[in-house]
Specification:
Aminopeptidase, Elongation Factor Tu (Ef-tu), domain 3, eight-stranded mixed sheet, six-stranded antiparallel barrel, about 25% strand, binds cobalt (II) ion, binds zinc ion
Length: about 350
Amino acid sequence: MKELIRTLVESFGPVGFEDEVRAILRAEIKDLADEISVGQLGDLIAVKKGSGKGKKVMLVAHMDEIGLIVTHVDKRGYARVAPLGGVFPLYCVGARVRFATGQLGVLEVDQREDTSKTPTLDQLYLDVGATSKADCPVKVGDVAIFHQRLESVGGRPAAERLIAKSLDDRIGCAILIETLRRLKQTPHEVYFVFSVQEETTSVGARTAAYRIDPDLALAIDVTGTGDTPKAQPMAVEMGQGPAIKVRDAGMIADPRVKNWMVQRAQAAKIPYQLEIFRLGTTDVQAVQAVRAGIPSGGLLIPARYVHSQAEMIDLGDVENAVKLLVELLKKPIIMSNE
Ligand code: CO
Ligand code: ZN
């Protein structure tokens, strides 16, 4: 699974340009799914048919990652950029970026009077090594990602931890693949949705949900943690199990969905945590409002430094997330308010 994670996080998939990621995932699910389709906007949807006695379940992980789009190129060939999704200027100075062509560049900061403050994105420029606008290999509208490899940190006796860009949410994509691989039998019709454009509008998940019309939906994504020095208090730690969504900045998880997940985790003795996240949300914020309303929740991987070039996760949480998803899907789904 680690090699798949590596391939996924090192691939190119800024918001709206998820083709390379989709091709990788499509090859992975080719022999695992009963049906595969691609939506009008680019979502990849794999269906596991099941015995037909259960519910229609939608699991969604997003293929896209944050990135940059070129807005202007000056006479000397320096580019200015705008964000695709939640890009933090604090993480940008000195960063290497990569375009679809393989072209690299470095983000640097304008001379400023007051260097005590974090620069804004408008104070950054992109240097791709050009000598003039005419020979600049990048044009207005071209999109780039942060250029970083996956690395392993930690290790024995502590758990193995990974740092990489776009673990948000390629780790969710890898979890869906592994769940599809391990789910031998299910009463449910399970839709594994690899969505586009989560980082800006969730338009991919929203339209996929309309098409599928599921009985319930779960986002498989990352969440924050409260386990770093002077972190905002949050009862989620890396390595203590996947987090079951209770509430985030965009929604409240359906209590019946949350309760079902908690009960299954307890019954199967799989470690879990409860997620109350004040800074972000997921695709199911959009999904829950589709048609007449879709009961929704989520299973999240605790991650440090989300939207940086070195997001960090614990592989133990990933394994427990797969285990819990298989457990949730192989049995009938009972949703109650208790
Ligand atoms: Co994100
Ligand atoms: Zn995400």
